[in-house]
C-alpha cells in the first residue's frame, strides 16, 4: 500500500514538473515575441483585456494560459498561435500519424 501511494505521489510530481516546463516555454516565447514587437507587458495586457500582473505570471510560467489566451496574445502580437507554440508540439518526423497524435495528446495532458 505504501509503495503504491509513494508511486502515485512521484508520478504526480513528475506531471507537475512537465506542466511547469510547458507553461515556462510558452511564457518565454510570448515574452520574446512581445519584446521583439516593442511592447511592454502592460501594452500587451491592455490589448487582450487582462491585468498586467496576470500577463507577468503568464510570461513567468506561473499561470496556465488557455488556448483562447494564446490566440488572443498571438492576434495582439500579429503572429499566429503556431508562432507561440511552434517548437513545443514538435513530434519525431519518423513517427506515424497515430504515434504523432498520441505524443501530442500526452504532451497536452502533461
Topology (SSEs and partners):
Layout (H helix, E strand, L loop, with lengths): L1 H35 L4 H7 L4 H9 L6 H10 L4 H5 L11 H13 L1
Structural summary, described in words:
By secondary structure, the chain is mainly alpha-helical. Helix content is 72%, strand content 0%. The protein is built from 6 helices and no strands. It is globular, with a radius of gyration of 17 Å. The two termini are 25 Å apart. The mean pLDDT is 80.
Structural class, please?
mainly alpha
Largest sheet: none
Low-confidence stretches: none
Distance between the termini: 25 Å
Question: What is the number of helices?
Answer: 6
Shape: globular
Helical fraction: over 70%
Count the beta strands.
0
> What string, H for helix and E for strand, traces the elements in order?
HHHHHH
Backbone CA Rg: 17 Å
Give the strand content.
Answer: under 5%
Overall mean pLDDT stands at 80
Give a brief description.
The chain has about 110 residues and is mostly helical.
Descriptors:
single chain; about 110 residues; mainly alpha
Amino acid at each position: 500500500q505504501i509503495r503504491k501511494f509513494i508511486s502515485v505521489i512521484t508520478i504526480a510530481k513528475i506531471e507537475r514538473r512537465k506542466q511547469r516546463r510547458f507553461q515556462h516555454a510558452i511564457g518565454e516565447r510570448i515574452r520574446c515575441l512581445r519584446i521583439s514587437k516593442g511592447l511592454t507587458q502592460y501594452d500587451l495586457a491592455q490589448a487582450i483585456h487582462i491585468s498586467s500582473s496576470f500577463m507577468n505570471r503568464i510570461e513567468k510560467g506561473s499561470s496556465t494560459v488557455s488556448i483562447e489566451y494564446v490566440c488572443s496574445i498571438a492576434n495582439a502580437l500579429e503572429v499566429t498561435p503556431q508562432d507561440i507554440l511552434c517548437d513545443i508540439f514538435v513530434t519525431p518526423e519518423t513517427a506515424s500519424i497515430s504515434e504523432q497524435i498520441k505524443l501530442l495528446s500526452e504532451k497536452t495532458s502533461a
